[in-house]
Amino acid sequence: MASSSQSRCGSGSAASRLRNAASTFCSDSQPLLADIRKTVLMMKDIAVQLEKDNLPDKAKELEDAVIELVGLSELSVQFSSAVQAFANAYQPKEEFTNFNTLFEDELSRFKANQSSDVPKNPVVRQFKEAVWNVHHAGQPMPGEEQEDIVMTSIQSNILNITCPLSGKPVTELAEPVRRDVNGLAWLKAEDTCKSMRKMPVSVFMECRHIYEKKVIMQYLKSKQHQCPISGCPKILQADKLVQDPLLMIEIEEMRKMNRETDVEDYTMLNED
């Protein structure tokens, strides 16, 4: 009896260590993703200058490199998500566990539920648009319609442009936060039963809406836990709302886009 109890305890401990290791791995990958985003932004500025200097071939080489970097970034996100989902769904058993097969299954699920069209990624789209606008500002890029300019030029990796509680633009928030990307670290072992395997991957993807920290904490203290964005069913936890490495980069990118839009609007007004 004692042996059986010790076995269960050991299995539970192993599962806990696996989840902790997965969480650490996902956290460690975030600075890399932030560095990739910074590199892409720098490459965009260089490509714009190359286009101004009438060196389109060099700008195209940078575009190809950006597509490759963004593809690697997406693969890293899928890999990290699969590691986290795999670790939290793992249940120790008497028989041998084929970890490789289990992980490959999780990775395949995440890949199947995410777009693999890297050239249409918003980051790549913004790069192409910046270069195109050097000589063709206001004109649709090849393969696009005129009305697509408005829709695509404002695309961003930021999901909400204002805090749903304070009403302030995210670019003006004193301490912006969003859900920790290490999505499933908070799930308990008993929650990761076989029935969860039948759920769509979207259930496991975390809400990534942005809030003012002080206001969202007050909201959660009032015993409300669903994301305050209308239509978002995700549940929030106070200790999982953080300022991740990519957040400030993305907010600064949005500020830059807003400044460029303001300049364009001012120029058009002067021309009128």
Summarize the structure in words:
- The protein has helices spanning 2-52, 56-89, 99-112, 122-136, 148-153, 213-221, 245-271, and strands at residues 176-179, 211-212, 241-242.
- 57% of the residues lie in helices and 3% in strands.
- It is mainly alpha-helical.
- Residues 1-10, 147-155 and 183-204 have low confidence and may be disordered.
- The chain is globular, with a radius of gyration of 22 Å.
- It is built from seven helices and three strands, in the order αααααββαβα.
- A three-stranded antiparallel sheet has the order 2-1-3.
- Helix 1 packs parallel to helix 4.
Total strands = 3
State mean pLDDT (0 to 100 scale). Answer: 77
Strand % is: under 5%
Roughly how much helix do the residues carry, as a percent range? 55-70%
What summary fits the major beta sheet? 3 strands, antiparallel
Spatial strand arrangement across the major sheet: 2-1-3
Radius of gyration: 22 Å
The poorly predicted ranges are: 1-10, 147-155, 183-204
Gross geometry: globular
User: What class do helices, strands and sheet pairing give?
Assistant: mainly alpha
Distance between the termini: 87 Å
Order of secondary-structure elements:
HHHHHEEHEH
Write the layout of secondary structure elements.
Blueprint (H helix, E strand, L loop, with lengths): L1 H51 L3 H34 L9 H14 L9 H15 L11 H6 L22 E4 L31 E2 H9 L19 E2 L2 H27 L1
Antiparallel strand pairs: 1-2, 1-3
Helix pairs in contact: 1-2, 1-4, 1-7, 2-3, 2-4
